[in-house]
Specification:
The chain is an all-alpha fold. It has four helices and no strands. The chain has helices at 2-141, 161-173, 181-188, 193-204. Helix 1 crosses helix 4 (193-204), helix 2 (161-173) packs across helix 3 (181-188) and helix 2 packs antiparallel against helix 4.
Length: 206
Amino acid sequence: MKKILISSFIAILLLSGCSEDKNKQKVDDSNVSKTNTSTEVKKDDELVDKLSDSGEKISNKVKEASKQIGEIVSKTSDEVGKEASKVVDDISKKSSEITEQVKEEVKSSSQKIQDSMNNIISSSKSTQVGKQLFLKCSGCHGINGEKEALGKSHIIKGWDKEKVVEALKGYKNGTYGSAMKGVMKSQVISLSDEEIDQLGEYISSL
């Protein structure tokens, strides 16, 4: 009986010791697990902090770059605006100068055209007067000045105005002519210098 009790007591101690070892092992395993979990959480927190710092740095860089770009764009816009304004002023100035030149050219051309028209009208009138005056000459000289008057004078067709005027004025004042001198003086004595000029104009056109 005494042996049985002793054996039972020993068995209880052994079982109790194993149980304590197992509990101790469980506690140790739990502590290791907690340590590992704590380390992992710490690493995760460090990673989050690093990512947060990096994000903030990137954000700051982007803001700084945006600010610099904005300043460059603003400066460039001002410079472009000034250049554009200068170009517009130059164009406006040149446009005004060209407009004035065109006005002067138009005015000058208009005057030239008017002068030409006046000359044409005057020449036409002069030719008409000369033609009327030549009617009394054509009886001897021919309608186109192609005859020798009375078979004695020169053919006046083809003479230029200066030669005709010089001859007519010579007949009038008695300094020109030979066989026809007397006849021609009576024909031109009543003509004014203007009429002689108009007659010369017409004869030179024959």
